[in-house]
Amino acid sequence: MGFNIGSVFLMVAIVSCLISVAHAAQGNAVYYDPPYTPSKCYGNRNKGALVAGVSDALWNGGAACGRRYRVSCVRGANQAPKPCRQGSVVVTVVDYCSRGCNGIINLSKDAFSRIADPNAGNVVIQYNQ
């Protein structure tokens, strides 16, 4: 009895997808307007427009600096009609959101706009590294 290489590849692909979905977490995301500098991690060094600040839940004493998360919108966190857009965005953690952070991840407006309508203001997201 032999193995069909195509079947083995398909099974590996399915298992990989299931593992990546299993490691995704959910939380709320909000956004902040530019400029995105200075930041807690990089000072005045510009790290682009697809950046984020994170709350205590992810900050880990600054170990989150430079960490990249793939973020997608799951649903609105308020009554905004059609808050989510299809797809995801990869952001780099550049800042710490200490007070007044209404989400686990505070996305740059550029990043938020890729996955959600900015008029929604606050959305439930799925994120993973």
Automatic annotation (TrEMBL):
Keyword Signal: yes
Signal peptide extent: 1-24
Annotated GO CC locations: apoplast
All copies of domain Expansin-like EG45, residue ranges: 27-129
The keyword Iron is assigned to this record: no
Entries under SUPFAM superfamilies matching the protein: Barwin-like endoglucanases
Keyword tags: Secreted, Signal
InterPro entries: EGC1/2, Expansin/allergen_DPBB_dom, RlpA-like_DPBB, RlpA-like_sf
Localization (cell): Secreted
A GO biological-process term: systemic acquired resistance
Pfam families: DPBB_1
Matching PANTHER family: EG45-LIKE DOMAIN CONTAINING PROTEIN 1-RELATED (PTHR47295), EG45-LIKE DOMAIN CONTAINING PROTEIN 2 (PTHR47295:SF5)
Protein name (record): EG45-LIKE DOMAIN CONTAINING PROTEIN 2
Organism name: Salix purpurea
